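Lay summary. Proteins are chains of building blocks that fold into shapes, and those shapes determine what they do. In this project we predict the shape from the chain. Here is one chain we studied, written as its sequence of building blocks.
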Amino acid sequence: MSDTEIDFRTLPLSEVLRMFRAQGEPADPRPDIDTESLKRRFPRLANVETRHVSIDGDARAVPARLYTDASAEASGRALVWVHGGAFIGGHLDMPESNWVALELAARGIPVLAVDYVKCLGEVHFPAPSDDVLAAWRHAVAHAGELFGTVSLYLGGASAGGNLTAGAVARLRDAGDRVPAGLVLVYPVVHPNGPAASAELDPDSPHGALALNFAGSVEALGDPHAFAALGPVDGFPRTFVLVCESDDLRPSGEAFARQLDSAGIDVTLRLEAGADHGHINEPADPTALPTVEAIADWMRSRG
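And here is the predicted shape, written in a compact code that computers can read:
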């Protein structure tokens, strides 16, 4: 059996990293998740326009894509959105990035979807976080050109939730302006997500991914790498969505409690029947309710 025929999710992380370094992330076999197919499946997306946005990061160009819909009623909100992928995969064409951005744009919320460098060996934190910060700062500096006059939010899913929560902590600690709001979908904001803890088994699947992201045992305790390990004072209003059937659910729930205890305006939503990664499958019956909940929360006046 060739590498491309192996389900990489069943392999040890070291083998997955070897595969991804050698040949890139395997192509998604689904035939109906490209933009044109999504627009045919969901006519409400027909008027969304996309374009590439060039962002110069500190160490590399940061891929990004802008989504707008001139026919939609303007919400006065825009979102910088970061996909997941366990810090080792994911891209702008995956539904968790592309479909979610299309849906939000069609609801009057322009989106700048952002990619970032993956942790595939020599790359570790803060490199992906640096890319997200560069994209955020670009969005702030060019907000009028990209979105018009809006309140600018930041958000992400899974590993993207980690990176965006960490970016808020970095912005706050640098004395920079934090987003108007933060959207976290099934985030992992603790080194040990299933236990919502800093203590982990590095040989477990979640522990191996956390250590691969952090790069060292010492870095696992960095609150800029895992935002739940530090204070959350100064965070903006935050929407946290967790899934009923998700090993990482405890991390998101604990972070929502931490925010609430610090006096931060936080909304916690449990998506009944959903599993981790459900918004990466547009046909999942729990996916659209999550997107609609994000849009409704962003439109609300917190």
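What the prediction tells us: Residues 143 and 149 are 7 Å apart (CA to CA).
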